[in-house]
Amino acid sequence: MSSIKSTISILLLAVLFNSCSTTQKIEALKPLPSDDTPMVYKTKTSFVNMPLEITLKEIENQLNKTLAGEIYNDSNLEDDNTEMKITKTAPIRLVEKNGKIETILPLKIWSKFKYGTDFMGLNDTREINLNGTFTLISDVKLSNWKMSTTSKIEDFNWSESPSILVAGRNVPITYIINPTLSIFKAKVAKKIDDAIENSCDFKPYVLDVLEKMSTPFLTSEQYQTWFKLIPVEVYVTDAVLDKSEIKMDLGLKCNMQTMVGLKPKNNFDKTAIEFKAVTRVPDKVTANVAAISTYESAAQLITANFKGKEFAAGSRKIVVQNVGLWQRDGKIIIALDMTGSINGTIYLSGIPNYNTVTKEIYFEQMDYVLNTKGILTRTANWLLQGVILKKIQENCRYSIKENLEDGKKSLLPYLNNFSPMKGVFVNGTMNDFEFEKVEVTDKAIIAFITTTGKMSVKIDGMD
After folding, report:
1. Which range scores top for mean pLDDT: 8-17, 353-362, 408-417?
2. Quick one: CA dihedral 454, 459, 461, 463, positive or negative?
3. Which end of the chain is more exposed for a tag (fewer CB within 10 A), N or C?
């Protein structure tokens, strides 16, 4: 009897020892407690094509802000017997004319001129005030985001014929004024060209737009998922004047990142972005984004698959009550809490993959975690070597269809009349997502997906 008791005691101690050893080894597989550090997943470089339209009205508005009040001042009377100040009296108007810009510039001209002869001091000066309109014709070029023009004064018309009172008589002086103005035609045209170049440098506006688009925004409140666009390079073609709009193609090379946790910082750096002039930009958007499944959310979805299901082989049967997931060494550990013929937890490992038809994440090369030995292994052999394991494996999957939709929704704000700043509007379309690959991290399973589409940007009504 004592020997039987001793044998039973040894067996009990062996079972206890194996149980404790199993617990320690399985616990070692579990990840460290998660923290709130944002996770960054870098996808392949994305390319965004955005044909850009700038209305002539917008250029007109910017030009009127630059050219306000006095636009010309010649205070030297001695060099050509004329002083002149030119002031803009009404807004400048721009219209397209045969592929060029016609500028209509209403002006008020104050002039002092000296006439007569210096012989014995027989000369005099007179001041006149004139109102008229200059008409300029400009060739247009936009290179590296800056619009430039080469303008010529085509005509100038007075609101009323200039005249001056001399010796009691109204003496027309158009013949004096017009040749004098001719001297300054090139100077006035140059003033207009300089003003257009200074007011129509759109690079700062583009950088402001990119900074706004780079601000991370929340795509999933439940999982605290953030989407962030990081510009790398900007390409632009030379512009063309088409009726009432300046048109060019803009290309944006960027990275798209998805982060989980606290809101990431916007590390946008204007100085780090390269601007490159090109002759052609591809006409579509290629976006690479990441659909994230945290282990907690994936485990909940897989647990739901097992609800109400019983797995049996002969007289033995089990029911999976709960599923846990984490990663270890590039594989996913699947913890299955069971009741029935096995009361406890078994651990499987597998490699995640993607079913393009069902849009599900499933696990390949599924196997039992064999770093536990003893009573659990011996008892579970019937489960692990038969058809039951295959049935369990079939249920260890979950759909990321909602993740894909969330990924698509994360880009939609950029496509539906998105206005990152006043007067700038972004519109576009997007095709369905295509799966690329699955990766695992310490916090999530990530499905990398791609899509294509089109975008356009219109500038009209900026401050």
Report:
1. 353-362
2. positive
3. N
Backbone angles phi, psi at 141, to 5 degrees: -145, 140
CA distances from 431 to 204, 374, 451 (A): 31, 54, 6
Q: Which two tokens stand for residue 423?
A: 């007067």
Average pLDDT over residues 296-311: 89
Lowest mean pLDDT among 119-123, 323-327, 451-455: 119-123
CA distance 27 to 278: 57
Instruction: Record the tokens describing residue 433, joined without a space.
Output: 């997502």
Tokens of 414: 């950029």
CATH architecture of 56-199: Super Roll (3.15)
Nearest CA to 366 among 384, 339, 378, 341?
Answer: 384
Distances (CA, A) of 294 to 16, 27, 430: 35, 20, 26
Helices 295-306/387-395 angle, 10° precision: 130
Q: pLDDT tens-digit profile of 175-233?
A: 666 666 666 677 778 877 888 787 777 788 788 878 888 888 877 676 667 778 889 89
Q: Which two tokens stand for residue 196?
A: 């257009």
Kindly state the tokens that stand for 295: 């282990």
Supply the Cα-derived Rg of the chain in whole angstroms: 38
User: Which sign does the torsion angle of CA 32, 37, 39, 45 carry?
Assistant: negative
pLDDT of residue 226: 78
Where along the chain do its domains lie?
56-199
**Residues β-bridged to residue 448:** 290, 437
Phi, psi (5° rounding) for residue 181? -65, -35
For 342, other C-beta atoms within 10 Å of its C-beta total 19
- The HSE-up count of residue 70 (CA atoms within 13 Å, CB side) is 7
CA distance 49 to 427: 12
* Structure-derived torsion over alpha carbons of residues 207, 212, 216, 219, reported in degrees to the nearest 10: -130
**For residues 94 and 153, what is the distance between their CA atoms, to the nearest angstrom?**
14
Could you tell me the two tokens for 392?
A: 């369990």
Buried b (16+ CB within 10 A) or exposed e, 9-31: eeeeeeeeebeeebeeebeebee
Question: How far, in Å, CA of 153 to CA of 459, rounded?
Answer: 28
